[in-house]
Amino acid sequence: MKDALADYTRALALDPKFADAYNNRGVIYVTQNRPDLAQADYDSALQLKPGSANIYLNRGLTKLVQGRTKEAQEDFDQCLALDQKLKLILQQRIELAKKLLSPGP
Q1: Are 5 and 26 contacting, i.e. CB atoms less than 8 angstroms apart?
Q2: Which domain holds residue 74?
Q3: What is the pLDDT averaged over residues 23-33?
């Protein structure tokens, strides 16, 4: 992941309008437990590519993990407004996030 993070950062240095690089780097930041950096990258990606359901999905999941459920729901609604085919994936990821957030036995 460290190499991928560096690669996306280099790609953005070469092309600061590469929305997918912001989105993918945001996913890496989430896996590194750096949601604030992920959020900033998703926001940048949406500025460049506002019609991307996947970016709304990723940003919503990050907000959900942060406990920002109302904001997460807004992103999920926007995601589904853009692409209804993502409904099942969205439901599965929300369930996974809930399991990860719930306290263990």
Answers
A1: no
A2: 2-101
A3: 95
- In this predicted structure, the answer to whether residue 43 has a pLDDT above a threshold of 80 is yes
pLDDT for position 105: 60
Give the domain CATH number at 30. Answer: 1.25.40.10
The three-state DSSP-derived secondary structure of the chain is: CHHHHHHHHHHHHHCCCCHHHHHHHHHHHHHCCCHHHHHHHHHHHHHHCCCCHHHHHHHHHHHHHCCCHHHHHHHHHHHHHHCHHHHHHHHHHHHHHHHHHCCCC
Our count of domains for the chain comes to 1
pLDDT greater than 80 at residue 6: yes
